[in-house]
Amino acid sequence: MATALFRCCPEDFVVDEILDIKPTGEGEHLWLLVSKRDQNTTWVAGLLAKLAGIPRNDVGFCGMKDRFAVTSQWFSLHIPGRDLDLNCLAHDDFKILKTARHNKKLRRGMHQGNQFKIVLQDFSVTDASFRERIDLIIEKGVPNYFGEQRFGHDGNNLNEVQKLIQTDKLKGNRHGTGLYLSAARSWLFNLVAAKRLMLSNNDLAGETGPLWGRGRSVTEGQIADIENDVLDDWKDWCYALEHAGLKQQRRELIMRVDNLTAEWIDADKLRLEFSLSSGCYATTLMREIAELSRPTNFAL
C-alpha cells in the first residue's frame, strides 16, 4: 500500500459545497456563501447568529465541513422583514463571497455534494500501480464507509454513545444527543458494510446496508442473515436507536466518485480533484489510495 502525508496545512484540503438550488431572490432568509480557513462550521454559524443579532437556531447550513481545511459553504439567516448591512457580519474568521435571498432555510443534506481538491505529500508509489488503482476507483467506486470525523477524536463519540445507552439517555436532537445517534448508526453501518465487503465476490454497486432505527428491515435471505449476525452483539445499540424515534433507512454500500483527476505537483506531491455526493466522505476515498499519516504537529 502506498503511503502519504495528509493535511500538512489547511490549503492541502479544499472543499467547495455544491448546491443545486437556485435562490428565488426574495424571501425571509438571507443566504450567504462563506469561505473559511481552519474554522468549524458550527463555530461560524454561531458567529453569524451573534453578529446578525438572531437566535442560533435561525441560522441554517447543509452540512459540516472539515475544520482543518479551506472550505466554502452556504449559510442561511432568518431575518423576516429586515435588510441587513453586510458590514455588520464582517469577521476575521470567515469571508462572505456571495449573498442571495430565498424563502426557505438551509437544512442538513439539502446540498448536492462537495467538490474536493486534496494534496498528498511524501507520496511514495509506483506510477503504474497508482494509475491502475485510480482507474479501478473510477470504474468500481469505493466502500461507502462513514469517515472517522463522525466518531470524534480517538472514537470518543462512540464511548459517549455507550455511556448514554447505559443510562438510558440516548434520546435524540431535542435532548442534545443527536450527534451520538448519528455516530451510533454510522458505526453499525460500517460494521455491516465491512462484513458484506469481506464476504462478497461480486460488485456491490446498488446494494445497501442499514441505518438502524424503528421499522421492519427490507432485507431477506442471506443478506438478512449477515446483517443479523453482525448486529447480534449490538442489540442494546439497536434497541436504543429504535426507541429514539429514528426510522430504519438504507445507505448504499459503494460510493461513486465523480470527475476524479490526479496530477503530480512534484516528484512526491500529488493533487487529487473529485466530487462526492452529499453524505459521502473524502477521507474514505483517500484511504483507498494510500495509507495516510498526519504531520507530527497536527492537532484536531
Describe this structure as you would to a colleague:
This protein has 300 residues and is an alpha+beta fold. The chain folds into three domains: 3-9 and 113-139 and 256-293, Alpha-Beta Plaits (2-Layer Sandwich); 21-102, Pseudouridine synthase (2-Layer Sandwich), CATH 3.30.2350.20; 144-255, Pseudouridine synthase. Helix content is 28%, strand content 28%. It has seven helices and 14 strands. Strands 1, 2, 3, 4, 5, 6, 7, 12, 13 and 14 form a ten-stranded mixed β-sheet that branches. β12 (258-266) and β13 form a beta hairpin. α3 crosses α4 and α4 (178-199) packs across α5 (221-231). The longest helix is centred in the middle third of the chain and has 22 residues, at 178-199. The radius of gyration is 21 Å and the shape is globular. The two termini are 25 Å apart. The relative contact order is 0.18.
Features:
300 residues, alpha+beta, Alpha-Beta Plaits, Pseudouridine synthase, 3 domains, two-stranded antiparallel sheet, 7 helices, 28% helix, 28% strand
